[in-house]
Design goal:
It contains 11 helices and 13 strands. It is of the alpha/beta class.
Length: 363
């Protein structure tokens, strides 16, 4: 037998161009976080790694504004946390209610459907807002074990109001699951005070870390449902019975091997959470809102129309611009990339072609 010759591309070092990442994510990573991710690897079960994981847990608790013990970071992107939340709290045949006003509600509905849940959806056009009255009516009708809402709908640039919804879910014995992948660190969220049962985010947006880790937290109500199942979760990798031990949250004296976590990714996430803690949540929220305000004014002064017209509902970390009539959005974005080295996107899912999506460069 002879060895196949490798392609010539593998005989030269990696080269990556610099880009201004003004899409909804990933965002440009600051030097301090890049340096943290470039530190020497240690074993994923070393005591020093456990200390770093403990730091991450504390950082997530601060960012989420929660005291929940069951707080971890998933080994994977925001979709990993999304699937973990659904897989662990829902069993086949149970009712799930999903608010769909952009791509992320669509994704959760499909995930729940694939694992055998009885899925009900509330649908609005991209950027639409669900009133608490509409939500309570659907909760009463479908009696779901889980209700999903996106706080930061990046495909539309919407920051959806959350106040009062957790109270409604408790009234109807429903777990409240919230996606903050595009909003955490940029728009206020208070997990405990707003009675959110499960909250998750991603590392690559306002947290300014590389993609690949996803913080998630479960309160005691969610844990009661999660750890008293009749069936095992459909995913072994995302089974919180194992992950709770891996993160030292189950009260056991030893952490057992479950999977090999992304060591460098955890280094980066830990450092990004430290930067957020040093800056302070309130200052981070203020900074995002201030910079977004300058952007909104500049765009409107140019004669462009913002997709979310109500300023109070705009997502500070992701601005969506309505595509001007007569323009091809793909050609515009290609021109911006070619001549200005800037990434912007053209919407996702139901908002594709309706908007141009622009995030913020933040160091």
């Amino acid at each position: 037998m002879s060895v196949q010759v490798t392609d010539v591309c593998m005989l030269r070092p990696l080269e990556v161009p610099f880009r201004y990442l003004f899409g909804p994510g990933p965002s440009n990573v600051p030097p301090r976080v890049l340096a943290a991710g470039g530190r020497g690897i240690i074993g994923h079960l070393h005591p020093e790694m456990y200390e770093i994981m403990n730091d991450i847990k504390k950082g997530i608790q601060y960012a989420f504004q929660t005291q929940n013990n069951m707080t971890i970071a998933m080994s994977g992107s925001g979709h990993a946390a999304m699937e973990c939340a659904v897989f662990n709290t829902v069993e086949p045949g149970e009712s799930v209610l999903v608010a769909v006003n952009g791509i992320w509600g669509e994704r959760v509905a499909e995930i729940a459907e694939r694992m055998g849940a009885n899925v009900h959806i509330m649908v609005k056009a991209p950027g639409g807002v669900f009133s608490n009255g509409e939500i309570e009516k659907a909760l009463a009708k479908h009696k779901p074990v889980l209700f999903f809402l996106t706080h930061g709908e990046s495909s539309a640039g919407l920051a959806h109001p959350v106040d009062g919804i957790g109270d409604l879910c408790r009234k109807h014995n429903t777990l409240f699951l919230v996606d903050t992948v595009a909003s955490l660190g940029a728009s206020p969220i208070f997990m405990d005070q707003q009675n959110i049962d499960i909250l998750y985010t991603g590392s690559q947006k306002a947290l300014n870390a590389p993609p690949g880790t996803a913080p998630i937290s479960f309160n005691e109500r969610a844990c009661q449902k999660m750890f008293n199942r009749k069936t095992k979760p459909v995913s072994y990798l995302f089974d919180m019975a194992h992950l709770s031990n891996y993160w030292g949250n189950d009260g056991q004296p030893a952490r057992l091997y479950h999977h090999t976590g992304p060591v460098s990714g955890f280094f980066s996430l830990r450092e990004s959470l430290a930067i957020l803690a040093e800056k302070g949540l309130e200052e981070s929220w203020r900074h995002h809102r201030e910079v977004a305000g300058y952007l909104w004014k500049g765009l409107e002064d140019m004669g462009l129309k913002l997709f979310i017209q109500n300023k109070d509902l705009r997502l500070p970390s992701v601005t969506t611009i309505a595509i001007p009539e007569g323009y091809n959005w793909r050609e515009m974005l290609q021109y911006i990339m070619k001549h200005h080295n800037m990434e912007m996107t053209g919407g996702l899912g139901p908002s594709t072609g309706m908007v141009s999506v622009r995030g913020m460069l933040k160091f």
